[in-house]
Amino acid sequence: MESTPRLYHTLVYVFSQHQSWVELRHLNTLAWMIVGLIPSGKISLTAWTPDVHSRAVYAQRIVRRFARWREHDRLDVHALDGPLMPQALAAWGRHLLYLALDTSILWKTSCVVRMSLVYRGRAVPLVWKVLEHPRSRVASDIYKDVLDRVAELLPCRCPVVLTADRGFADTHPMEQLARLGGHWRIRITGSCWMYRDGKRGGKVKRMPWSPGTALFGHGVYITKPRYGPGPSAMARCHAGKDYWCVVSDEPTAVKTFEEYGWRFDIEEHVLDDQSHGFQLESSLIRSAAALERLCVVLALTTLSLVAPGTEVVQQGQRRWVDSHGFRGQSSLKIGWHGVTLALSRGYKLVTRVH
Fold it and tell me: Beta strands 243-248 and 227-236: pairing type?
């Protein structure tokens, strides 16, 4: 059997393990889109056509098929990949799980709000929303919708910690996380007001601290309405102007900064979606709904590559696809090379997500 049909049948088998498909045609088309994306490495309907095996003789018919899927208004993208994530996290048990919330701007017209699972130097997308919005700051109602969707996907026994940058320094997601039983490490801006017990309130950037120091406080209130009390951690680097002020609902220590720093793994994932991987910006698609459907292709491709990457490492076969003496690639890149190697040499493909 040729390599691309073998990958297609493997993806269909994996994705068929849940029953959210209204029509099998949606599943088949999605599987062929992923088959085209992995070898081409870019979001381009025309670049995917050489790897598609179908009754269509002309490439234009294949492109139309993909375009109809992308523009299908009644296709619920979150219902497609949603059941696969609990399956991938089935063995997670009671281990602590870190999430990263971030936004990215495309062509200064669209904003992608993404909640991802921090995993081995990368971030695996869980829930996303695409808005026709030229700025990275969005309304708190968007956060609420994203957090509600994430709560439906994660194992109920898993403790969760949300990490987010200054753009998400809002008390509304904090309150919602508290109701859902989650925790947070969120950086706040220098203009945010902070109140400490026995001290006068003031803006964070006016706090009396020296470069190269770290301060840890408890019983701290933030914003003028005084949300809290809760712990906080503040650090200022030797540059003088650059500083981190991270608020948490749990006691703070040096590890608080380390936990917040894991948020930057989502930046690597954004690079994978764009210049270092799938070239999302080259698609030049301006429709927010179409972009949101393309994001499910990216999310399932990421999951379909991270899973074999994890398997390759666990089986002690990393050196088969990674030329470094030590681990020098992410699970996604290892999985990408592992799938390519398996297809070219006839090795068995991974048929589970974990």
Answer: antiparallel
Specify the DSSP element, H or E, that contains 171: helix 171-180
CA angle 12, 16, 22 (to 5 degrees): 110
Q: Looking at the 3D structure of the chain, how many domains does it have?
A: 2
Q: How many CB atoms sit inside 10 A of residue 159's CB?
A: 12
Annotate 35-85 with DSSP letters as a single string: HHHHHH-S--HHHHGGG--SS--SHHHHHHHHHHHHT-TT--HHHHHTTHH
Range of the domain at 20: 3-75+296-345
CB–CB of 102/270 below 8 Å?
Answer: yes
Q: Is the domain of 259 the same as that of 123? A: yes
Q: Which residues contact 318 (CB under 8 A, 6 or more apart)?
A: 312, 327, 334
Note the pLDDT of residue 239.
Answer: 54
Nearest-CA neighbor of 300 among 24, 21, 30, 19?
Answer: 30
Query: Is 66 within the bounds of a domain?
Result: yes
Q: How far apart (Å, rounded) are the C-alpha atoms in residues 217 and 55?
A: 66
State which residues of the chain have pLDDT below 50: 1
**Nearest to 247, CA basis, from 234, 238, 258:** 234
pLDDT of residue 73: 81
Summarize pLDDT for 94-117 with one digit per residue, the tens. 788 899 988 888 888 888 888 998
Q: Residues 199, 170: contact at Cβ < 8 Å?
A: no
Residue type at position 140: S
Long-range contacts of 10-13 (CB under 8 A, 24+ apart): 10/349, 10/350, 10/351, 11/35, 11/304, 13/351
Residue 155: asked if its preceding bond is cis (omega within 30°), the reply is no
Separation CA 280–CA 288 (nearest Å) = 13
248 within a domain of the structure (yes/no): yes
pLDDT value for 2: 67
Q: Do residues 217 and 176 both lie within one domain? A: yes
Q: Are 17 and 108 within one domain?
A: no
67 and 121: one domain? no
Regarding whether 221 and 183 lie in a shared domain, the answer is yes
